[in-house]
Design brief:
The complex is a heterodimer of chains A (60) and B (358). Chain A has three helices and no strands. With 60 residues, chain A is mostly helical. Chain A has a domain of 41 residues. In chain B, strand 2, helix 6 and strand 3 form a beta-alpha-beta unit. Classes of the chains: A mainly alpha (60), B alpha/beta (358). Chain A: One of its GO terms (biological process) is mitochondrial respiratory chain complex I assembly.
Chain lengths: 60, 358
């Protein structure tokens, strides 16, 4: 029997879990003033998080 | 225009005429009752019922995953059935409307539904149920557990409905109607409750549990913040839910008597937002709101939402909590010889004395 298929979301979750420091920085930036969130409010923090995720997903 | 004589001549005629309008309403022979939706008016559609059906079919097709994720529905069904211990009756015919995977049927066969260890064991409630009809629109989900041993301990038939929003049974058929975690996907909840009232025999009870209030508020807020920051706008991801204070009114509007509504919160900890979403999907509880954005959520938004969820609501140990607020409702169909509430002001004992002396 073939091993059970890994869903894309599981790979995604595994990669995201390796970026908790970046995620915390981004989360803090949003939560600091969550009543006035606008587009690209924390774009720099998000790009750092995304870079980390992309690196982690390539490694896997 | 005799009313204008009440006013002194200095009052302009126009003003007097203005006052006449309400007086003619209140003194008229026809007294207006409370406003309600006229029959035949279009029902406000919130959910795509076909999407919901598809989601349930797909969820149940993966038997293993769907059984694992069913823990919440089993727990709520057990809590709902436990309330039947308070009613000392035998129920020849019972209807479970929106049965999902017959979670209520399973809960009724629980050998000891009494949660208090100090009280004597009660035995399964199924012994007081003559026949249970489990009605559900998704056949795959309904028959998922048809082979399990609990089916032999209860006299149950499964019936696939075209749509749960129309109950296809005769009036005055059932001695009890139960419903667990499916009413929150009904578009016309007032109409649904009226239909339930119709199929009940007089002086018989309806007991229902549904998601409501602040269920999944953590998921709702973090997805909103993530979409707002990443894309500059939001689309609905979590259903609009009925509030606890709405439910009493809804039951009364459907002509239920001796209405009782209460709620409890079940908080489940998940490792991350993706595990929560996968569990919702595996129970067929994914988004089916009309007007939602089609297709999956963007990866950027998911990435952002997980970070925000953790920061805003996360537990100290790195898990994330998800709140499920279940509203439990009970209402009785009207009957002539039914116990009635006493008239106001007929009490002789002051509650203050009793409560203070305690």
């Amino acid at each position: 029997m073939a091993p059970p298929r890994t869903r894309p979301i599981q790979k995604f979750a595994a990669a995201v879990s390796q970026c908790s420091p970046e995620a915390a920085v981004y989360g803090k930036c949003i939560v600091a003033d969550y009543n006035s969130v606008h587009k690209d409010k924390c774009v720099n923090e998000f790009m750092r998080l995304k870079d980390c995720y992309l690196k982690a997903s390539k490694k896997a | 225009m005799n009313c204008s004589s009440l006013y002194r001549s200095t009052v302009p005629h126009l003003r007097a005429a203005k006052f006449l309008v309400p007086t003619s309403w209140t003194t008229g022979a026809q007294r207006r009752t409370y406003a309600f939706q006229a029959a035949g008016a279009p029902i406000h559609q919130v959910f795509n019922r076909r999407t919901k059906w598809l989601q349930k079919e797909r969820a149940a097709a993966n038997v293993e995953q769907s059984r694992i994720a069913d823990f919440l529905k089993d727990e709520v069904a057990a809590r709902l059935c436990e309330r039947l211990l308070d009613i000392k009756r035998h129920y020849p015919k019972v209807l479970d409307i929106g049965a999902n995977s017959c979670n209520i049927g399973r809960a009724l066969t629980n050998p000891n539904p009494e949660p208090d260890p100090l009280l004597p064991q009660s035995g399964p409630i199924a012994s007081r149920v003559g026949h249970l009809t489990a009605a559900e629109s998704s056949a795959t989900l309904l028959y998922r557990d048809a082979e399990l041993p609990f089916n032999e301990q209860i006299n149950m038939t499964r019936e696939v409905l075209a749509d749960e929003e129309t109950i296809p049974y005769e009036a005055n058929t059932f001695d009890l109607v139960l419903s667990s975690l499916s009413l929150h996907w009904i578009n016309d909840l007032p109409g649904m409750l009226s239909q339930i009232n119709n199929v009940l025999k007089p002086d018989c009870a309806f007991m229902g549990a549904m998601m409501g209030g602040d269920s999944l508020f953590e998921l709702r807020t973090s997805l909103q913040l993530a979409e707002q920051e990443r894309r500059g706008g939001i689309s609905p991801h979590v259903s609009p839910l009925a509030d606890i204070r709405d439910c009493g009114g809804l039951l009364q509007r459907a002509r239920f008597k001796m209405v009782g509504v209460d709620f409890d919160d079940i908080v489940v900890d998940f490792p991350d937002i993706f595990a929560l979403m996968q569990d919702l999907q595996a129970t067929g509880e994914n988004n089916a709101v009309l007007g939602r954005e089609m297709g999956p959520i963007q990866r950027d938004v998911l990435l952002a939402a997980d970070a925000i969820y953790r920061e805003l609501h996360g537990n100290a140990d790195g898990t994330i909590p998800a709140t499920f607020r279940t509203i439990y409702m009970i209402g009785w169909k009207e009957a002539d010889n039914q116990a009635q509430p006493l008239p106001r002001g007929s009490g002789h004992i002051n509650l203050k004395d009793i409560l203070q002396s305690k």
